[in-house]
DNA sequence: CCGATGACTCACG
DNA sequence: CCGTGAGCCATCG
């Protein structure tokens, strides 16, 4: 058997490039469990700074961490434009072939 | 086993 | 755009 969901999520998170963002739902889908976006959030919460947690946003590109300031700042440091608590997925959304994590 | 929980998401008003 | 409610599902006590 292969990696479990949590290991897959960590692996995927590590490949999000600086200056790009992904959503909880997108990560869950890539990890093969589209209904588990809440669990992706759980991984991020417990992983601390070991993972690029700031590059993950809620649906539509909204910052969900509370307070949102720190995440917004980290994103800006890598060139991501944050308007209010929003990031345009159109411009900064990470896109990758699902086949890249097909195993 | 049961109920509560959560960095979620979507539909609806 | 902002709730609200329902659906979701592993984890915890």
Topology of this protein?
Layout: H1 5-14, E1 22-23, H2 24-30, H3 37-47, E2 56-57, H4 69-77, H5 89-92
Parallel strand pairs: 1-2
Helix pairs in contact: 2-3
The chain binds a DNA duplex (13 and 13 nucleotides) through α2, α3 and β2.
The 3D shape can be described as: globular
Query: What is the CATH top level name?
Result: Mainly Alpha
Q: Which class best fits the helix and strand makeup?
A: mainly alpha
Mean pLDDT: 95
Write the CATH architecture name. Orthogonal Bundle
- Count structural domains: 1
Tell me about this structure:
The longest helix has 11 residues. The chain is built from five helices and two strands; from the N terminus they run H-E-H-H-E-H-H. It is 40% helix and 4% strand. Helix 2 crosses helix 3. A two-stranded parallel sheet has the order 1-2. With 103 residues, it is mainly α. It has a single domain, classed as Orthogonal Bundle (Arc Repressor Mutant, subunit A).
Summarize the structure.
By secondary structure, the protein is mainly alpha-helical. The protein has five helices and two strands. A two-stranded parallel sheet has the order 1-2.
